[in-house]
Structure formats: C-alpha cells, structure tokens
Specification:
binds pyridoxal-5'-phosphate, 2 domains, 15 strands, 12 helices, Aspartate Aminotransferase, domain 2, alpha/beta, Aspartate Aminotransferase, domain 1, four-stranded antiparallel sheet, globular
C-alpha cells in the first residue's frame, strides 16, 4: 500500500531534489512529457538572449571565431559523450536524428560492400523504419524487419548492419545493448543504436559495450528545446572508413580553403554537413550544462524508482477502469517512461491535460507518461495518479472530442 506520505518521504530523501530549481515549469503543471520535449532549463533564456543580443546582434559574423561558434558541434558533442560512455572524439552534434540515421546507415553499408542486408525491429520508431528503408533502397540492400524476439536469429552472415532503438518509444522496453551488440559482432555485422529515449535518462556505456554507431535526440532528456539538433556517435575504430553520403562543406578537412575537391575531415567531424543552427545548438548546450554535474547512475536509479512507484500507484488507485500496463514491470528492462494501454487513451490523455497533467498519446491506444528525475518528484506522481483516478471515475474523458485529434498527439 502506498500513499501520499510515502511519496513525501521519498522526496525528502531524494538527492536529486535540488535539480528541480534548475528548471522553469508553469505553476500547477505536472509535466509528464519530458521524454518528448524536455522542460526549459532556468538558464536557457538568458543564454539565448545573450547569444541573440550580444553574440549575434553586436559581434555579428565575428562570433564564429570570437565566441567559438565554429567549435560548438564538437564541444557540445563532448558534453554528450560523457553521458553515453563515449570519448569526446566520437560524438558530434548535427542535423536531426532522422538525417543522422540516414548518414550513418548509408556510410555503414558502404563500409561493408560484401554484405547487403540490414536488420531492424518491427514497431521501431517510424523514422527509423522509413529512413532505414530509404537508405536500403538507395544502396540496393535488403531490409529485414522482424519482431524483437527474432532480431538475433535474423542476423546472418550477410547482414551489414543492425538498426535498433535502445529504449522503445511506446513501451519503454530497454534492450540489452551489450548482449545484442556482441551477437551482431559475432556474425560480423555492425550495430547502430538509436538512443533518443536513453541519452540523459539511463546509464550508458557505448565504449564498454563496443557499440559501433549511435544517434539520439537533443530535445528529450537532454533538454535542448524544441527541434534541438541531434547527436551522432561513431566508434573511433570505424571513423577512417566511414564517409557521410551528404558531404557538406562543414565536414571538409579545411572548409575555409574553399577547394573544389572534397577532402573529409579527420574523425567524426566529417559527418557535419552544413552551417549548424547556432541558436538551437547553444540552447542544447544550456540543457546539457544542467546535466554537467549530474550522476547518470543516480538519474537512472530515481527513474526506476519513479516508474515502480507510478505503476504501483496507478494499479492501486485506478484498477477496474481498463488501463493495462504496456511497459515492463522489471525496472532494469525499462527506460524512463511508463505507458498504459486503454481503448480511450486519447480522450483520457486530453482530459488529463485539461487538468494540467501533461503526458501524451501514441496511436492506437497508448497513454504515455515520461518520468524525468531531474524535475519531477514522487508527490507529483501521486498527485497525477489522483487526477487520473478522478478522470476515470467521473468519466470526464467522455466530453473530449474523439473524432478530430490534434495534429500532434
Ligand atoms: C526513437 C526515436 N528516434 C527518432 C525520433 C525523432 O527523430 P527526429 O528528431 O529526426 O524527428 C524520435 C522522436 O520521438 C524517437 O522517439
């Protein structure tokens, strides 16, 4: 039996509690969607104002050198490297996750010309499926999309690359990165992990797991702001043979030599493409600076406790209303969000949002709740579940529009 007092006790003992003041959330809002768009760090708007007013407004083009804008993709990549168990030479920030997937998949296929198959998981995030298919079509490779439990069986000797998401966007199912990477390597395949729901949420050790390639979002647990650029990782050992299919000038060894001939930069920098979106990039840096002194083990530990608490509270307070746990009960196999399936999940989520409890809906029937340890406490979760119970008990979701869904759910 859990209750509000238990939540209060857990909050009082929480070493991450002080981080809450480093974010700005609207009063009264219980924000359970940081897995989709991270909250606003308290320092971001001052940082952006300085960039706009001083660096851009006053220093103009000189800021590329004077404020080291040109080094931002690598500098910010190094800050992400620390969070994912990589070296600063292996991570760069550029483009979107979708674009980085494409660049890395094509590069990996070209680096393995004797193998013509890619394996991915059915139900992977749509952009991963679409981009992998389009890269396969471009190269003339075969894409094998199999259910999660058949991924290992599908990795045969002709597979060049395995493309998987570490924490599933709907269910939060967390795959065993080390074991699957080893299995791919045993068959001579490379592996690319999408870390969009992992980076900044769970402990990662890409080097320790011998991961080849990875990508991830900057606007979720890294709190970079809407549309913040993505990061990509290439293990140092692969960098000499990996070439971006979009050989932009920022990936040139010497962009300001303005040569006709493309010569790739050393290392991961060659995967830069065009001029980086500085405002978004520096907003991402402000988000990462909040995490600079945070311990990923502590963050994951609290996320797991919050997941267990939330599941227990929902099952205790909301039983009999048709909610079905769609996430793993074992916290070691779960990321930092928890999902419940319900035939009316969209309307229920709309009713919750109306009451200032913000989660999201993933078609066809998933109500998803992001549990971000840095700015959420256990009492917030308790309050959210009380409101969920009220919405279900009084059926206030029935008055929500069901026919016309918002474009973004
Ligand atoms: C696993 C995963 N990959 C990729 C993306 C999005 O990629 P992009 O930033 O290119 O839209 C998401 C967005 O939610 C995601 O969950």
């Amino acid at each position: 039996m859990i209750d509000r007092e238990a939540a209060v006790r857990l909050d009082a003992a929480d070493p991450l509690r002080p981080y809450r003041d480093r974010f700005r959330l609207p009063p009264g809002c219980i924000y359970l969607d940081g897995n989709s768009l991270g909250a606003l760090p308290a320092t971001t708007s001052a940082r952006l104002t300085r960039v706009v007013e001083e660096e851009w407004g006053q220093h103009l083009i000189r800021s590329w050198n004077d404020h080291d804008w040109i080094a931002a993709p690598a500098r910010i990549g190094a800050k992400i490297a620390r969070l994912i168990g990589a070296t600063s030479k292996e991570v760069i920030v550029a483009d979107s996750t979708s674009a980085n997937l494409f660049k890395l998949i094509v590069a990996a296929l070209r680096a393995r010309p004797d193998r013509r198959a890619i394996v991915t998981e059915a139900g992977n995030f749509p952009t991963d499926l679409y981009v992998t298919q389009s890269a396969a079509d471009l190269i003339g490779a075969e894409l094998r999309t199999v259910s999660t439990e058949h991924v290992l069986d599908a990795i045969s000797e002709d597979v060049a690359l395995v493309v998987l998401t570490h924490v599933h966007y709907k269910t939060a199912a967390r795959l065993d990165m080390r074991r699957i990477t080893q299995a791919a390597h045993a068959k001579g395949a490379l592996i690319l992990w999408d870390l969009s729901h992992s980076a900044g949420a769970v402990e990662l050790d890409l080097n320790g797991a011998a991961v080849d390639l990875a990508v991830g979002c900057g606007y979720k647990y890294l709190n970079g702001g809407p549309g913040a650029p993505s990061f990509l990782y290439i293990a140092e050992r692969h960098q000499p043979v990996m070439h971006s299919p979009v050989a932009g000038w920022m990936g040139h060894r010497d962009p300001f030599a303005f040569r006709d001939q493309y010569v790739p930069a050393e290392g991961v920098d060659r995967f830069l493409c065009g001029t980086p979106p500085l405002l978004s990039l520096l907003s991402l840096e402000a988000g990462l600076d909040v995490l600079a002194d945070a311990d990923m083990g502590m963050i994951e530990g609290k996320a797991r406790m919050m997941g267990d608490f939330f599941i227990a509270a929902v099952e205790q307070s909301c039983s009999g209303f048709g909610l079905e746990l769609a996430s793993c009960r074992d916290s070691s196999a779960r990321g930092s969000h928890v999902s419940f399936a319900h035939p009316q999940a969209y309307a229920i989520m709309q009713a919750l949002i109306r009451r200032n409890v913000i989660g999201d809906f993933r078609a066809p029937d998933i109500a998803r709740f992001g549990l971000t340890p840095l700015y959420l406490g256990f009492e917030d979760l308790w309050n959210a579940v009380e409101i969920l119970r009220d919405v279900l008990h009084r059926e206030t979701w029935r008055s929500e529009t069901q026919e016309t869904r918002a474009r973004v759910t």
